[in-house]
Design brief:
The protein is an alpha/beta fold. The chain contains 18 helices and 27 strands. Helix 4 crosses helix 5 (143-151) and helix 7 (261-269) packs parallel to helix 13.
């Protein structure tokens, strides 16, 4: 969630890390700070608010020095203010720490440190780390040893980076549950929580795993365990460039990413469809056909938007592959003693591949003997490295906090997996070819939907002055109703609820009146006539109906107040097309209301704490 950037090398560090930190603004944050080792002194500046507020405070007077850390904080312990902003320092102001994650046993540690004479300035859990390191850091103890000593005493998650005036050309970083990577330059090295921060300077990175420490200096870097035993790590290459994380002429990242969906869907499919065989080729599963046939149950686990794609996957897997499937909130999975074993396939879905709850759920599933697959976007992410196999969705970097193109690509990836499992089980070659043809058409059909964006924009007036909205769908498009409502909530701050359309009669119908916008996702599918009846029920109560329908639909056209059309496809892939107008609708409403579309309040792009 928070952002970390560090630099050690020959260049002036302050301007470099601040510029790099701006590339992590999309993650969501509420304060920012900077620490520079400068001429034997540790210079720390921090403030509540955006990086621009920090730059205003510095007023061009950047501290001089070749080693620096910068941080954006998303508040957990303590309100977002200057005192609670990172970096945090020890009693003498000689050690600076930035931290992503949560130290769960901070309260007893803090109490014990106070008894031993330590003076705390903030309300944060992070400050405990600075004082613990201070206790262990003696004349004969290098910084990395003191950091390891401190980390053995904490419980929780962390991605940390540390500076000290006593070793002014060194950065020590460590991770447990919160991502960090080392960027490799020519005589210079970077630490970052996300590769986008260092792309301007290098594409060669080393991803840290849990309980690993990185030590950076101008002379090189090394990775150790918590016992300071050296670990050899592979160097990875980031395969996307800086233009991928820039707006490219669009007003917002979210709009850019909505408009990128035809290409991202095409990338998700590229090289994976076998039309003659009516099958999908998924080389990264690392599971034989015999192993795939041995599973008698699938569990999909995810959070937020990824959870909605998982619901669509459940419908696909049960209908086309005929395998019992259930969807679990990752945040609840490991706390309810789940029933999984070696005959269960557990699939974790996460755009970032770093979602803490999803990662924990997958680890718990593996501990209980299940095989695991990850459906992720970020190559080299923790989930991608820890699962038995997986599917990269190849959506490209997604910067907007509200996920759009990742959702559609997740659905496509689930369709590919369903196709492969179905062909192993009961799906005929003719049925498989129909699925392949439908998948192949999706990129052009998505482009067709996006060509009607201006028609969607006109519907903003329907939501003028409203504070509530209802989204209704059935079958494959019930999860789309949930996703459409989530998008509206996330970025426009209008309260919206997604419901199965038939469940409307069991409560939400009481809310409907002539001021309530009701969005129906109603393509011509297996439950079409049922949802027509639901629309009539809303109209009987004077609700204002916006309907997403299949091209040429005359029946709903005579009922709805406003119509959005999408091309025809087979039922399982209607969500890929029907969600796009809802993404656009949320976007245009939020812009009209003057909201910060890319960085909605209180939200973060990658939730790396529980």
């Amino acid at each position: 969630m928070c952002g970390i950037v560090g630099y050690v090398g020959r260049r002036e560090a302050a301007a470099l890390v601040l510029e790099a930190l701006k590339r992590l603004e999309y993650r969501g944050y509420d304060s920012a700070g900077l620490a520079v080792n400068s001429g034997g002194r540790l210079l720390v500046e921090k403030t509540a608010g955006k990086i621009s507020a920090l730059e205003t405070r510095l007023d061009g007077r950047l501290p001089k020095g070749h080693v620096a850390l910068a941080h954006t904080r998303w508040a957990t312990h303590g309100v977002p203010n200057e005192i609670n902003a990172h970096p945090h320092t020890d009693c003498g102001g000689t050690i600076a720490v930035v931290h992503n994650g949560i130290i769960e046993n901070w309260a007893p540690l803090r109490a014990a440190l106070v008894k031993r004479g330590h003076k705390f300035r903030s309300e944060t859990d992070t400050e405990v780390l600075a004082h613990l390191i201070e206790e262990a850091y003696g004349p004969a103890v290098p910084l990395e040893t003191a950091v390891a000593w401190a980390l053995k005493r904490v419980e929780g998650t962390y991605g940390i980076s540390v500076l000290s005036t006593r070793e002014p050309e060194k950065i020590v970083a460590a991770r447990h549950g919160s991502p960090l990577l080392v960027g490799l330059g020519d005589g210079e090295y970077f630490i970052a929580s996300d590769a986008s921060a260092v792309l301007q300077h290098t594409r060669s990175v080393v991803y840290l795993d849990d309980d690993e420490i990185a030590v950076l200096s101008p002379d090189g870097y090394r990775v150790t365990d918590l016992e300071t035993g050296r670990i050899e790590k592979p160097v990875s290459r980031v395969d996307w460039d800086l233009s991928s994380v820039e707006k490219g002429g669009f007003r917002h990242f979210m709009l850019k990413e909505i408009m990128e969906q035809p290409e991202s869907i095409r990338n998700a499919l590229r090289g994976r469809l076998l039309e003659d065989e009516g099958n999908a080729k998924l080389g990264g599963l690392n599971l034989t056909d015999e192993e795939l046939l041995s599973f008698n149950r699938v569990v999909l686990t995810a959070c937020g938007t990824s959870w909605h794609s998982a619901l669509i996957g459940e419908y696909m897997l049960e209908e086309l592959a005929r395998i019992p499937t259930e969807v679990e909130y990752a945040s609840e999975f490991r706390y309810r003693n789940p029933i999984v074993d070696e005959h269960t396939l557990v699939i974790g879905i996460s755009q970032s591949g770093e979602t803490a709850d999803t990662l924990s759920a997958l680890r718990e599933a593996k501990r209980r003997g299940a095989r695991t697959i990850g459906i992720v976007n970020v190559v080299g992410s923790t989930i991608a490295r820890e699962v038995d196999g997986g599917i990269y969705i190849h959506a490209g970097p997604e910067i907007g906090v509200a996920s759009t193109k990742a959702f559609s690509c997740q659905v496509v990836a689930l369709g590919l997996l369903t196709l492969h499992l179905g062909r192993l089980r009961s799906l005929s070659v003719l049925q498989g070819r129909e699925v392949v043809r439908a998948l192949n058409r999706l990129p052009e059909q998505a482009l067709d939907v996006l060509a009607r964006a201006s028609e969607v924009e006109k519907l903003v007036s329907v939501f003028e002055g409203t504070s509530n909205a209802l989204y209704l769908g059935r079958g494959y498009n019930f999860p789309v109703a949930l996703e459409g409502a989530l998008k509206l909530k996330e970025i426009s701050y209008i309260h919206a609820e997604g419901y199965p359309a038939a469940e409307m009669k069991h409560g939400p119908i009481a809310l409907i009146d002539d001021s309530m916008p009701v969005v129906f996702i109603a393509p011509r599918d297996a439950v079409y006539q049922k949802i027509v009846s639901n629309i009539q029920e809303v109209k009987a109560r004077r609700g204002r109906v916006i309907a997403v329908v299949t091209e040429g639909d005359d029946q709903i056209a005579g009922l709805a107040d406003h119509l959005i059309t999408i091309p025809e496809t087979i039922d399982p892939f209607t969500p890929v097309l029907s969600v796009i107008p809802l993404q656009l609708l949320a976007y245009y409403i939020a812009v009209h209301r003057g909201k910060n579309v890319d960085q909605p309040r209180n939200l973060a792009k990658s939730v790396t704490v529980e």
